[in-house]
Amino acid sequence: MARSSTLAFLKTEPGAGLVMTLAALAALALANSPAAGLYFDFIDGRVPVGVGPFFVSLSVEAWVRDGLMAVFFLSAGLELKYEVLRGEISSPRRLAAPLLAGAAGMVGPAVIYLLVNLGPGGDLRGWTVPTPTDAAFALGSLALVAPRLPRALRLFLLTLAVADDVGAIALIGVLYSHGIHWRALALALAVLAVMLLLARRRRPPRLAFIAGFVLVVALTINSGISTSVAAFACAMAVPVDRRSRDGESLLRAYQAALQPYVAYLVLPLFAFVSAGIALSAHPPGGWFSRPVWGVALGLTLGKPLGVFGMVFLSSALKIGRKPMGATWSEMLGVALLCGVGFDLSFFLCGLALPADQQPQVRLAVMAGSALSLAAGSAVLARRQWVRDQRGGADVFAD
Fold first, then answer.
1. For labelling, which of 6, 53, 95, 212 has a CA lying 20 to 30 Å from the CA of 295?
2. What's the confidence (pLDDT) of residue 12?
3. Residue 305's domain is classified under what CATH number?
4. What is the distance between the alpha carbons of residues 37 and 30, in angstroms, rounded to a whole number?
């Protein structure tokens, strides 16, 4: 029975968040232990991969970031396409407030980061780092500490997190794609076009889309375009209303197949190779530099100010509304949870800042995310307790 309960928990969002947390803590412990040399040798070790004319030699960390994380962005794209076309956020009326809040929740941290980094000692390049929300941690925490709060809160947070993913992918594509190799890009686009043609068939072959995704990502690694953009484009090519020969929806089948690998392999491994920070090092500008403060304050203050402020403003202007049945206190708790950046903030840190600045900024991501998680969880747990004391009905729509 105990084993069954443990497996059931691990399949939930809180379970996935716990695995990522343990992976990050393990990396931090190893990086500051006598085994630190082995850890850094592992993540910096070169891994050559060659098939025919394709040959790339990258570090383990780079393969995880550019290769495995493409699977995460594919999964995020599939989820977005299904939810918008067939799922919980397919209604335009439900989209306005969380989409606006998602945009404001990216602008708020960026503005705070830029304000903190104006002047000597600042580095304006890192403004994208505090902009994302980690959906697994945020949704997992909501499910764990306040499972009986209105379901509309989870829907709001899910929509906002998906919008954040799209925003992050757009930033990556616009800001961090450079030195484009047109031949590799043309070949990737040709493969993507074949995938779109296959999507028009009544019974598209399931393996063709898998092979197409692998080819597009492999070609994109050599093209100068971020693999996150390529993976998202592949997700958009998968039809939502087509079924394979066994009668199962292709898109839903891919979602179900990818979810455990993303939750328990891709994201934990990315956390493991990203969170190993040697605290004995002496980074430029010190551990409390302007970029560090900009990221930490962007996550803990910019995120909730942007999200909560936009929901309040859109409600006042009648162009959106807060989640149905939720109070403003509960909305504040969800806005605080949005300050959990973690994996995607690590990802953007690796793209936006030079290597010698990344350790202290990644530590700031961990600290800011932990504070946001603690604050949001405390507010939502308190609101859950208040509702339970009133028999599940909240008579005060504060």
1. 95
2. 54
3. 1.20.1530.10
4. 9
